[in-house]
Amino acid sequence: MQNEDSQLIIELKQEHRKDHAFQKLVKLYQEKLYWHIRKMVISHDDTDDILQNTFIKVWKNIENFREESSLYTWLYRIATNETITFLNSQKKKKWLPINEGTGYLIENMQSDPYFEGDKLEQKLQRAIQTLPEKQRLVFNMRYFDEMKYEKMSEILNTSVGALKASYHHAAKKIEQYINDSD
Amino acid sequence: MNELEKIAPGLSKMKRKLPYKVPENYFDEFPERLQQRLDEEKITPVLHKNRIIQFIRPAIGIAASIAIAALIIYSLFRDLPSGNQTASNSATMTEEEGLITFIEKIDETSFFTLIHEPLTEEGEELYEEELLSYICSNMSEYEIYLENNN
Predict the structure, then answer these.
(1) Least crowded by CB within 10 Å, which of A34, A82, A120, B22?
(2) Which of A52, A136, A180 to mutate to test the interface with B (most CBs of B within 10 A)?
(3) Can you give A99-148 as a three-state secondary structure string?
(4) Which of A67, A100, A133 lies at the terminal end of a domain, its last residue?
(5) Domain check: are A82 and A160 in the same one?
(6) What is the pTM of this model?
(7) Chain A contacts of B7, Cβ < 8 Å?
(8) Closest CA to A49 of A97, A18, A87, A21
(9) Bridge-partner residues for A115, per DSSP?
(10) Which of B7, B27, B38 is nearest residue A171 as measured by Cβ atoms?
(11) Residue A150 lies in a domain
(12) How many CB pairs under 8 A join A and B?
């Protein structure tokens, strides 16, 4: 994968190969990035917008990519930042404090045509949405993506210890929420 | 996962399934839709530059107008008539009125010096020359201009 990524980066930085290489990049990473975003914003339409914005940013900034991290890490980081920017803008529109959880997204969940969970899954999602954004990111990446803490640390620019603590707190809060709502 | 079993045993037993679905063919069609948007974005940077120019243009226009106005004002005062021209322009005023106006502005010492000097023909010429010389050195061109126009 690393060799494939290195080759891809070389092609992306060459003007006459950029278009073709970029299409390859999109096909390789679109699904992973889509679900990473979707877990945070819930709505498919919003996810679609953010995913497009993410890839456009990648297109515009590929020449500036210094390869200090892997391509995947870099893409994930851009997607995360775009997601947080979107969520903060939504909060501003609703006059909510920036550090407020995104429980308001739950309101749209059940009416969303692309939601197909049972009651327990709904409850779990409601619980996750009560977490602060960063903690929610950590929880999603660890619980659903089973990402290693070291990889998470690169993407979120947070120490492994802090991430472990964040995940532990998140898991406890979620379990408490589910038990209390029974 | 052992980690989760210790922290949240109930959660560790739950299925790790996301309750969301994706529209049919979404990932097949996404690259094409993205490319369309990219093509639009490629045009936008040019429009953005034009927008900057359009924004700056009025400011440049205003700055240019001010500069031209300043230049005109400067050249107006620079081209004001000299002392000699002022003397001939004073034909609009009588000589007596001109003298009176001049005397009102002169200081005491200079005034008494002037009246006590003999008025020979030569002196008269000199007197006029002295007057002109005095006006030129003691009054600014702008003051002379104002005096003639009032």
Answers:
(1) A120
(2) A52
(3) CCCCHHHHHHHCCCCCECCCHHHHHHHHHHHCCCHHHHHHHHHHHCCCCC
(4) A100
(5) no
(6) 0.65
(7) 168, 171-172, 175
(8) A87
(9) B20
(10) B7
(11) yes
(12) 79
| Residues A62, A171: Cα–Cα separation, whole Å | 36
Count of positions (residues) in chain A: 182
Number of domains in chain A: 2
Contact B31 A30 (CB under 8 A): yes
Give the CA radius of gyration of chain B. 44
Question: Which member of B1, B18, B31 has the closest CB to residue A27?
Answer: B31
- How does pLDDT run along chain A (182 residues), one tens digit per residue? 567 788 899 899 888 999 999 999 999 999 999 999 999 998 999 999 999 999 999 999 998 888 888 899 999 999 999 999 999 888 777 666 655 555 566 766 767 788 887 888 888 998 998 898 899 999 999 999 999 999 999 999 999 999 999 999 999 999 999 888 76
Same domain, A96 and A121: no
CATH code: domain of residue A60: 1.10.1740.10
Indicate the residue of A39, A42, A52 with minimum beta-carbon distance to B37: A52
The ipTM, to two decimals, is 0.87
Q: Which residues of chain B does A170 touch, with a Cβ-Cβ cutoff of 8 Å?
A: none
CB contact under 8 A, B4 and A171: yes
Number of neighbours of residue A177 by Cβ within 10 angstroms: 17
Q: Are residues A29 and A84 in the same domain?
A: yes
For residues A73 and A141, membership in a common domain is answered with: no
Of the candidates A79, A48, A15, A46, the one whose C-alpha atom is nearest the C-alpha of residue B31 is A48
Question: For residue A25, what is the nearest residue in chain B, using CA coordinates?
Answer: B31
Query: Are A179 and B10 a contacting pair at CB < 8 A?
Result: yes
- Whether residue A177 contacts residue A126, with contact meaning beta carbons closer than 8 Å, is answered with yes
Q: What angle do CA A154, A43, A28 make, to 5 degrees?
A: 50
**Residues in chain B within 8 Å Cβ distance of A23:** 31, 35
